[in-house]
Amino acid sequence: MRCDYYSQGLCRSCNHLPEPVSAQLAAKTATLTQLLEGLAVEQWLPPVSGPEHAFRNKAKMVVMGAAHAPVLGIPGPDGQPVSLCDCPLYPADMQALLHELQDFVRRAGIPPYRVDKAKGELKFILLTRSQVRGEFMLRFVLRSRDAIARIERELPGLLARWPGIKVVSVNLQPVHMARLEGEEEIFLTEATRLEEVFNAVPLFIRPKSFFQTNPTVAAALYRTAARWLEDVKPASLWDLFCGVGGFGLHCASPNVSLTGIEIEEEAIACARMSAEALGLDRISFSALDSTGFAEGQDATEVPDAIIVNPPRRGIGESLCAQLSAFAPKAILYSSCNPHSLAKDLRAIEGYRIARVQLFDMFPHTDHFEVLCLLLREARP
């Protein structure tokens, strides 16, 4: 992939960009193999990758410069603003919209927030793209309500030029620190969610709900999870840290009872919308802490299979012990951090690692996703 930002030394986010993707995958596979050393893996499946460029569906842009000359991007090596509107990780329509948004901020006269002076209004612009229809969710992260009227003044013209923008909101983040978003979300459009579809499963994106940033590889990940669990034939299933329900909904059917648990209420609202759209009624989604939920369950009501897709910290000792004690037929573990994954796999007892597969969700970086299938060992 060619990137002028990298070649000019302006951005190093894609630190492995000069290497062929084949070499990147080999290095990631070697890292994973080393981390899982000593664990008996029955089947290593070949890594799954997607496009090298134009694959990313989310842009998180710092707003810098001045109200008359705003810049969406990052601070460069010399501290000066670098516009990343032409970043090749984004599809062409997303790049064009980012340029439009730079002009929008200028027309609206919204002063970018200055961290060094604790002055200004607009901190970030967050843009999410739905692959299925090429539609967008646009969020303005502001220090206060003072600039909302300026956004509302210019918004009709923006929506007329870009009818693909379906959701627009303002997030208020008044704290003087590098926090991406605050608690309060103010919608400026009637629509409050963006629809995506992976493998014929409708999924919904709301402002604060986590969603995978690489649709092609994410669809392959969910498809693989569903195929692996088909072999287990579970009649009941838990999906812990379920997010908007991607894993559980792919593995659900009229014959499978699914319980999804996620602490973020907005993500649970999205998961319920998807279940309703699919016409599945043996599904329950609840906004709870996953570890706390598991610890409060009766061991006699354990499902046949449990899916875990935790944040980077992993599931931790307590939940590892709880899963070991529950002893479902299968545990499907999806991880974005192979270090915490390796630690958790060593803590889960009574299981054999039947399959491991790497998914290159983040090309040109050190990061990747891993899917593991654990099957309960026969007990004497």
Automatic annotation (TrEMBL):
SUPFAM superfamilies, sorted: S-adenosyl-L-methionine-dependent methyltransferases (SSF53335)
Any one GO molecular-function label of the UniProt entry: rRNA (uridine-C5-)-methyltransferase activity
Keyword NADP among UniProt keywords: no
Keyword Glycoprotein part of the UniProt annotation: no
GO biological process, one term: rRNA base methylation
Residues reported in the UniProt entry to bind [4Fe-4S] cluster: 3, 11, 14, 87
Binding site for S-adenosyl-L-methionine: 212, 241, 262, 309
Annotated transmembrane regions: none
Active site: 336
EC number: 2.1.1.189
Chain's role: Catalyzes the formation of 5-methyl-uridine at position 747 (m5U747) in 23S rRNA.
Family: Belongs to the class I-like SAM-binding methyltransferase superfamily. RNA M5U methyltransferase family. RlmC subfamily.
NCBIfam families: meth_trns_rumB
The protein's name: 23S rRNA (uracil(747)-C(5))-methyltransferase RlmC
